[in-house]
Amino acid sequence: MASDERELIRKKKRAKKNKKNKIIIWSIIGVIILILAVMKIWEIDINTAKEHFTDENGNFTITQGITDDNFPYSLDSSRDVTLVNVNKKIGILTPVSFTVLDSGDGETEYSFDHGYSNPIMRNSGIYTLIYDQGTTSMRLDTTSDNVYETDTENDIFCADVAKNGSVVYAATSSEKKCDIKVYSRSLEEKHSYSTSSGYPVAVAISDSADNIAFVTANSENTQLKYTIYTMSVGSNEITAEAELPQGNVIRIEYSSNNIYIIGDDYLCVMTNQKKLTEIYSQGEINTVSYTFTPSNELVIVYNSYDNSTDNVLARIKSNGKIKSSCDVSGTVKSVSASSNAVSVLKNGKIITYKLSNLKKTQSVAVSDSAKSICRMGSNVYIHRQSLLERGNSE
Description:
Helix content: 10-25%
Largest sheet: 4 strands, antiparallel
Strand order of the largest sheet: 1-32-31-30
Low-confidence stretches: 51-67
Radius of gyration: 27 Å
């Protein structure tokens, strides 16, 4: 009888243990299914998910990625995400929203849904301008509050913002081809100019908000002719005009009283708002990516032709002087600069260079799914899928 009782007790213990093991197994399966579902919803690449659960030696650890901040930060989109440094905070524009994050802990400091179909962002100092290209909608925000949201008379093609919150925009014209308007942050009109020289392509305003520049395109002998004009705000007199090389204008940007003109296959500067100088002639380069330092100095990546993996990283002073350059091999996706360093994202790596001489200081492996970066201080913020991650580049 005693042996029968012991056998019965052993059976009960085995049954209890088996039940416990089944609960554990099914709990693990449930967690895996939940993780896979979340990964599917947030478009996380299963092949790179292991990065969050492995340490620097490649060993599995459940604590990897668990920090006292909000990084990785979840985004509401995996595509068309733009990262910028907004007064030492991270500005994130997606097709749905704009968010300002604390760069230290990833806490959301300000956020809104913009409702724009084609949002374009420009920022300077504490101000961020977002306009809906091809429509009449635009809004101005600080890092913590909305300044205004307004509708213009005609459709906006391009716009820019100064450090004091003044905004310049170029729009279609009811009577001519192009309207140029400048408004203060209190929506007081400071400048208005209309021209029939061509349709608006690009516009910029100086940090002081005293000067503006704009580019128009006009068809001449079946070819597009691009012209840049400079003006003082409040004056209807053109300070200077110059014909640009043929080819698309990607961006114009003030640096003090000098202006960078970045084309898809050339680079020019206009010094003192008057003299145009070609740094790289038309067809000499193929612009891959570019960024501006906190002091508005241009850093550009270019190669000789589309799909080339032999790139050049160059630092260009606003007077047109090529300060330094170096070779970068591979497919470059993004470049971002702080006040003392430049980081380049290419397939599988982030390479960091000293800004002063573009000497390589570090190379860090990253997932191929990384799409763009934003460098701030010693940190590089990485957009990957629907996540914003923080990495230390030093």
